[in-house]
């Protein structure tokens, strides 16, 4: 069982209503919190303001409520927390762990090509460290996190098992603040998980690759590392992850029990209850019986 004081969260980006895939992530995080007798929070990850849709946050909260998923504390919005992200960046800069970068994506691609490392199609654009030693008179565009010395980072995912990533080789120095002045997801999520006392992160499997970057940031900032569980994804007919970008339909919660049953099937839960409250209670018991939630 988890230690006392379990705190989990669901952190959607309000770029549109929830769809079937995002409900799976929400339900998994809610069930994990309830199965451990913990608290479940909701955080709106709206730092990428140009992509956010006005009113989508309210729609998401209403969709969650219709499915019986109620947060134990008032939601927070990342767009109001810039001062906290700046303070974290200042600490990293003072410690020599972050630096300004003048490179555009085209610059990075050209540097990789010149170094004999062309980017693979759909592959990670691994930053080659061009600005680690200074800007050479060029204006700063973004701020990056150093990955020198990270080595091979290891962690255990509660569903996927032992994981590892060579951060410098597979990702490179990653962005903390973007060229447009917006805060990057990696820094914001680490700062907010720590501020909210999150002990367990349950989210979609598509975010598993972010974990090493977040662990490295947690270590650099002297923060504790939550336990991670990456839940199965809902995939479209083409096999790709269902998402707003590939046309996922908004979740219709006029029949919330049907929504829960569909999400439960993705999570491997067979529940026969005929009311929302009854379904959630049975699903919580089924989730609690799994060894993977330990």
Task: Briefly characterize the structure.
This protein has 294 residues and is an alpha/beta fold. The protein has helices at residues 20-35, 56-66, 82-94, 105-114, 167-170, 185-195, 211-221, 256-266, 276-288, and strands at 7-10, 39-44, 76-77, 98-101, 142-145, 152-157, 161-166, 174-177, 200-204, 227-231.
Question: If you had to describe this structure to a student in words, what would you say it looks like?
Answer:
A motif ('HIGH' region) lies at residues 12-22. This protein has 294 residues and is of the alpha/beta class. Helices cover 34% and strands 16% of the residues. The chain folds into two domains: 7-80 and 196-292, 3-Layer(aba) Sandwich (Rossmann fold), CATH 3.40.50.620; 82-177, Alpha-Beta Complex (Glutamyl-tRNA Synthetase, domain 3). It has helices spanning 20-35, 56-66, 82-94, 105-114, 167-170, 185-195, 211-221, 256-266, 276-288, and strands at 7-10, 39-44, 76-77, 98-101, 142-145, 152-157, 161-166, 174-177, 200-204, 227-231. Strands 1-2-3 form a three-stranded parallel β-sheet. The chain has a three-stranded antiparallel β-sheet with strand order 4-5-8. It has a two-stranded antiparallel ribbon with strand order 6-7. Helix 6 crosses helix 7 (211-221). It is elongated and about 65 Å long. It starts with 6 loop residues before the first strand and ends in a 6-residue tail after the last helix.
Coarse morphology? elongated
Low-confidence spans: pLDDT under 50, at least 5 residues?
A: none
Class of secondary structure makeup: alpha/beta
Helix content: 25-40%
Radius of gyration: 20 Å
What is the total number of structural domains?
2
Mean pLDDT: 91
How would a textbook summarize the main sheet? Answer: 3 strands, parallel
CATH-defined architecture of the largest domain = 3-Layer(aba) Sandwich
Under CATH, the homologous superfamily of the largest domain reads HUPs
CATH class identity of the largest domain: Alpha Beta
Number of helices: 9
CATH topology of the largest domain: Rossmann fold
User: How many β-strand runs?
Assistant: 10
* Element-level helix/strand string: EHEHEHEHEEEHEHEHEHH
Q: Report how far apart the termini are.
A: 5 Å
Strands of the biggest beta sheet: in what spatial order?
Answer: 1-2-3
Strand content: 15-25%
């Amino acid at each position: 069982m988890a230690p006392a004081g379990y705190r989990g969260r669901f952190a959607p980006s309000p770029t549109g209503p929830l769809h079937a895939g995002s409900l799976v992530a929400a339900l998994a995080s809610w069930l994990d919190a309830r199965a451990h007798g913990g608290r479940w929070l909701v955080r709106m990850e709206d730092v990428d303001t140009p992509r956010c849709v006005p009113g989508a946050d309210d729609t998401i909260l209403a969709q969650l409520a219709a499915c019986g998923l109620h947060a134990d504390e008032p939601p927070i919005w990342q767009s109001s927390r810039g001062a906290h992200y700046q303070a974290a960046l200042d600490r990293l800069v003072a410690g020599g762990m972050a630096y300004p970068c003048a490179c555009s994506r085209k610059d990075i691609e050209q540097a990789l090509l010149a170094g004999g490392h062309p980017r693979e199609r759909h592959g990670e654009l691994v930053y080659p460290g061009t600005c680690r030693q200074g800007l050479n008179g060029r204006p700063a565009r973004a701020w990056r996190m150093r990955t020198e010395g990270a080595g091979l980072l290891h962690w255990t995912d509660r569903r996927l098992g032992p994981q590892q990533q060579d951060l410098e080789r597979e990702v490179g120095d990653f962005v903390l603040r973007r060229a447009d002045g917006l805060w990057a997801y990696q820094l914001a999520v680490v700062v907010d998980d720590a501020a909210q006392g999150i002990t367990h992160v349950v989210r979609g499997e598509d975010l598993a690759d972010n974990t090493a970057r977040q662990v490295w940031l947690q270590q650099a900032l002297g923060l504790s590392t939550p336990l991670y569980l990456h839940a199965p994804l809902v995939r479209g007919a083409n096999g790709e992850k269902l998402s707003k970008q590939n046309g996922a339909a908004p979740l219709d919660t006029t029949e919330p029990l049907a929504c829960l049953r569909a999400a439960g099937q993705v999570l491997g839960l067979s529940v026969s209850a005929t009311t929302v409250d009854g379904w959630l209670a049975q699903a919580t018991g089924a989730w609690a019986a799994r060894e993977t939630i330990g």
